Amino acid sequence: MEKNQKKVNIIPLGGLGEIGKNMTVFRYGNDMILLDAGLMFPEDDMLGIDLVIPDITYLVENQDKLRGIFLTHGHEDHIGALPYILKQLDVPVYGTALTLGILEGRLEEAGVSTANLNAIKSGDRIRAGAFKLEFMRVNHSIPDAIGIAIHTPIGLIIHTGDFKIDQTPVDGQVMELNRFAEYGDRGVLLLMADSTNAERPGYTPSEKMVGETFDNEFRHAENRIIIATFSSNVHRIQQICDTAVRYKRKVAVIGRSMQNVVRISLELGYLKVSEGTIIDIDETRNYTNDKIVIICTGSQGEPMSALTRMSMGENRKVQIVPGDTVIISASPIPGNEKMVSNTINHLYMLGAEVVYEKANGVHVSGHASQEELKIMQNLVRPKFFMPVHGEYRHLIKHAGLAVARGMDKKHIVIAENGAVVELTRDKIGINGKVQAGKVLIDGLGVGDVGNIVLRDRRQLSQDGIMIVVVGIDKATNRVTSGPDIVSRGFVYVREAEDLMDQAKVKVQDALNKCEDNKVTEWSAIKGAIRDSLSRFLFDKTRRRPMILPIIMEV
After folding, report:
1. Which phi and psi (to 5°) does residue 467 adopt?
2. 20 to 30 A from 226, CA-CA: which of 123, 139, 238, 414?
3. Cα pseudo-dihedral 100, 105, 106, 108, rounded to 10
4. Which of 522, 372, 418, 374 is nearest to 17 (CA)?
5. HSE-CB for 154 with a 13 A CA cutoff
6. In this predicted structure, what is the pLDDT of residue 2?
7. DSSP label at residue 360
8. Is the pLDDT of residue 527 over 60?
9. At what angle do helices 497-516 and 522-541 cross, to 10 degrees?
10. How far is C-alpha 109 from the chain's CA centre?
11. Which of 62-76, 272-286, 526-540 has the lowest mean pLDDT?
């Protein structure tokens, strides 16, 4: 591309080739803005890891250029990294009222200042350095979701955020398709659109369909109803409350995140419930079971969530009894299927009737399917297209929809996290790379667990550990005690005494060799012990435990 040509760089730091940790930088000259700052949940092989956030090295290095962080909605995969990154970045944050309401609670828990939060609404315009941003309402599985029009010196960029086209939204707030069409009439240089459901043909059903399912289940339920759903799905909670009122039931909420979102939504007016409908969980004992609905967390089978603990009989407030109807109003996030099915099995074993997504219409997605994605492209009619938010196959499928609509393949870019997408008035392409990746959070540690620690944890989980303790006289370099061997997670010592005795002999042989060869460096002695024992144990067991030699100076 010509050097003197004006350009915008778009740098995804998360959200491409994966579901979650959405974060995108837009840069023009010395001005940068950031769109979303999300987290993702750990993969199965990330042992002991609680959360994963994007690597923000690039942002920290360029924080003097960062003019603002703009949030599309309040889901964890779009705001969850902020309690961590705002400890390093002092920058204004913009979001809608509910988004900021949820974020505020997260920041206060983390001891981070909320002074930089700025409320926006659909129709507002914000200037941020060289960028001018406008916001338009979209439908999603959380209220107050927005798409963003980014006016740059070289042209207009439209970012849809997470969206679906719901013609009958629960709150009556229809997506502002007219705004997208108006931008299309003016001319859009680049469209960046949600790809999560790009593999699904047709249209995503309306959220109201779930309300009809709830009505049917409430009509037939003779005892208590327990519904697990995402705490952020305020429209779903609204429909549960509306149906409960219709069938003269009281609603109790259990689970910390669920209670927080319900409280914030009631305060801000996003949840409209008549007084006396929602009661404290302790008050449920004052009513018969056929007059109670419990809304709880745990739709993904999370080990510490309310529903999972109920299914294991470990929840102090609620015990599952035969006759309970449990509705799991969510579909499993990829990777969570086993945990969800375990929860369902345990609920059945306790005598509950379980209604879940595969068999019934108790959940609809919050993301656009193929026909809605085509509608978005036809409304916006962009010159260039960049699919975002999704695994690599979703991005490819979404690009295919644009090609089917008649777009030139050269006008579509499929990027990976860290890629520098260079956009001019005439071209789009990838030109360079910045540091991007995963920062792992384990307890209070942020980034202190890396690939080496994870590799050790995997080895420990698969083959266990053997600790070899040897006492050596520093003056004479002779072995004075040991070797003693401690095994954890490798073999049960009492049933493998022969193996342990042979292992001690191998260690003694290694020590004798070191003595004969006048090896005095402790690191070399430890290496000899490790090599000798590792070969022996693999030959005998076909396992590779972690071997930890400890030399004690006597």
Report:
1. -110, 125
2. 139
3. 120
4. 418
5. 22
6. 45
7. S
8. yes
9. 150
10. 19
11. 526-540
Joined tokens for residue 321? 């009894």
| Three-state SS sequence of 236-295 | HHHHHHHHHHHCCCEEEEECHHHHHHHHHHHHHCCCCCCCCCEECHHHHHHCCHHHEEEE
Q: For the range 131-135, what are the long-range contacts, defined as Cβ-Cβ under 8 Å and sequence gap of 24 or more?
A: 131/26, 131/28, 131/31, 131/33, 131/67, 133/33, 133/70, 135/96
Give 410's DSSP letter. Answer: G
Residues 6+ apart with CB under 8 A from 422: 1, 7, 8, 9, 428, 429, 430, 431, 432
What single-letter DSSP state applies at residue 412? Answer: B
Q: Which residue has 């006597």 as its token pair?
A: 554
Spatial contact of 297 and 258, defined as CB atoms under 8 Å apart? yes
Written as six digits, the tokens of 219 are 């009509």
Q: How far apart are the first and last CA of the chain?
A: 69
In what order do the strands lie in the sheet containing 31-35? 117-119, 93-95, 66-70, 31-35, 23-28, 8-14, 419-423, 428-433
Residues in the chain: 554
Q: Which residues are catalytic?
A: 194, 367
Count CB-CB contacts under 10 A for residue 3: 5
For the segment 158-170, the average pLDDT, to the nearest whole number, is 96
Tokens, residue 85: 């990154």
Give the C-alpha separation, 256 to 263, whole Å.
Answer: 11
Beta bridge partners of 471: 481, 552
What is the rounded distance in angstroms from the CA atom of residue 118 to the CA atom of residue 270?
19
Give the pLDDT band (50/70/90) at residue 139: very high
Q: Beta strand 155-159 with 146-152: parallel, antiparallel or unpaired? A: antiparallel
**Within a 10 A sphere around the Cβ of 543, how many other Cβ atoms?**
12
- Looking at residue 144, what DSSP letter applies? S
369 CB burial (10 A radius; 0-12, 13-18, 19+): buried
Between 206 and 461, residue with greater pLDDT = 206
- Report the amino acid identity of residue 65: K
